[in-house]
From TrEMBL:
<dbReference type="InterPro" id="IPR036291">
    <property type="entry name" value="NAD(P)-bd_dom_sf"/>
</dbReference>
<dbReference type="Pfam" id="PF00106">
    <property type="entry name" value="adh_short"/>
</dbReference>
<dbReference type="InterPro" id="IPR057326">
    <property type="entry name" value="KR_dom"/>
</dbReference>
<dbReference type="GO" id="GO:0016020">
    <property type="term" value="C:membrane"/>
</dbReference>
<protein>
    <submittedName>
        <fullName>Short-subunit dehydrogenase</fullName>
    </submittedName>
</protein>
<comment type="similarity">
    <text>Belongs to the short-chain dehydrogenases/reductases (SDR) family.</text>
</comment>
<dbReference type="GO" id="GO:0016491">
    <property type="term" value="F:oxidoreductase activity"/>
</dbReference>
<feature type="domain" description="Ketoreductase">
    <location>
        <begin position="9"/>
        <end position="197"/>
    </location>
</feature>
<keyword id="KW-0560">Oxidoreductase</keyword>
<dbReference type="InterPro" id="IPR002347">
    <property type="entry name" value="SDR_fam"/>
</dbReference>
<dbReference type="InterPro" id="IPR020904">
    <property type="entry name" value="Sc_DH/Rdtase_CS"/>
</dbReference>
Amino acid sequence: MARPPFRGNVVVITGASDGIGAEMALQLATQGARIVLAARDEAKLQAVAARCRQLGGQTLVVPTDVAVQAQCETLMERAVAEFGRIDTLVNNAGISMWARFDELTTLEPFERMMRVNYMGSVYCTWYALPHLKKSRGRIVGVSSLTGRAGVPTRSGYAATKHAMAGFFDSLRIELADEGVTVTMVYPGFVSTAIRERAMGPDGTALESSPVHEARVMTPEECARIIIAAMAGRRREVVMTARAKVGQWIKLIAPGVVDRIARRAIERGE
């Protein structure tokens, strides 16, 4: 029987209190991974940790706001102090927004999203990288299809995901001779709380999602795809058939992709 690829590996996951991050932790626990769980909500992290331990994983809970650089440094220090190494960093923490740019009443949500989605990934990667070089490890950036094309009502969120893509695609080249691989993941809509917690034009939570539930991926399936990509050290994963076709259409007829994106948002797809 083949050895699980992450048995004994130390995996740091941000945004691990629910959704994709929590589900990744649970699936990695079944492989016998040592999982460092990071997010702001300690109670939720502890609940995820308890479930991971029941499945055979070792855990460390580190309450972390990735928008705060010092907390990201502490996260990596505690991971190494507890487990002696870092093998994989999953940059999954993120916040979202649904609003036309010309309907915003404040730009503060744009700044907040950039601090969490982009700078949070930069901070965590900065402090984890020396340890990942030693272990010839893996970096994963959980982006979005909005990181590959513009989407109406998603301008601020898309900007952060494009920034992530530019950063990690550049870093992949820089680290090519260091043994550290970088995997970018581009999910479509996933059934997680990030959609309900998404900010509206005034920066407050919408508490509902405009996307039809029947058209979203489950966190379980999304996590399974990400973990398989991590194991194979894949360069990137685009998760929906429509997006895979769309990226080729964009090269020759970008206006067509713009119209498809507009119709998809209008239909809640």
